[in-house]
Design goal:
Elements: H1 3-14, E1 16-22, E2 25-30, E3 34-39, E4 53-59, E5 62-68, H2 69-72, E6 85-92, E7 98-105, E8 107-113, E9 119-120, E10 134-140, E11 143-148, H3 150-153, H4 156-159
Parallel strand pairs: 2-11, 5-7
Antiparallel strand pairs: 1-2, 1-8, 3-6, 4-5, 6-7, 9-10, 10-11
Length: 164
């Protein structure tokens, strides 16, 4: 593969999104911001964390903090079943280093392209989720779905806030 082919392949991947269910709704995040999807496994609670920080889990030898996406959106708590999964997201900190964080989702839907021509700004109203968590709205199979801003959802400073 020459340089132009590699660049074109990278641009094609940039339109790929991981689509998943949380609370009965489909959401999307850029596929490139994720590293893997794992089955829900035992989570060790960490005291004094906000309720949406469920604790930490061991994924391939790495201790990864895990948050409940539904709880983060103030829409309840995820009920764990055999389809519940953890998406491991690469979060860029302010110093440009990357750390991995896990988000609990109800179910993976699929990985697919959303054409950039079908992506629009988020409206100021009409979404269940706080607008600060949504980066854009993408039209997928005739419906608009929220493309989430993982940097806002996984804001390290907010996640590490100690609850008294």
């Amino acid at each position: 593969m020459n340089h132009e082919d590699a660049l074109e392949a990278e641009l094609e991947q940039d339109d790929q999104y991981l689509l998943f269910y949380v609370g009965g709704d489909i959401y999307a995040i850029r596929a490139l911001s994720t590293s893997e999807i794992v089955e829900y496994s035992t989570i060790t609670k960490v005291p004094l964390m906000p309720s949406f920080v469920k604790g930490v889990t061991n994924i391939r030898g790495n201790i990864v903090p895990v948050i409940d996406m539904l709880d983060r959106f103030n829409l309840g708590k995820t009920e764990v079943n055999n389809k519940t999964s953890i998406i491991v997201v690469n979060y860029k900190k302010n110093d440009e280093t990357t750390t991995q964080l896990g988000i609990i989702i109800d179910e993976v839907y699929e990985v697919d392209d959303i054409d950039s021509d079908l992506i629009q700004e988020t409206p100021g109203f009409g979404t269940k989720v706080d607008k600060k968590f949504i980066s854009k709205m993408g039209k997928y199979q005739g419906d608009y779905i929220a493309i989430l801003d993982t940097q806002a959802i996984l804001n390290i400073q907010e996640l590490s806030r100690v609850v008294k």
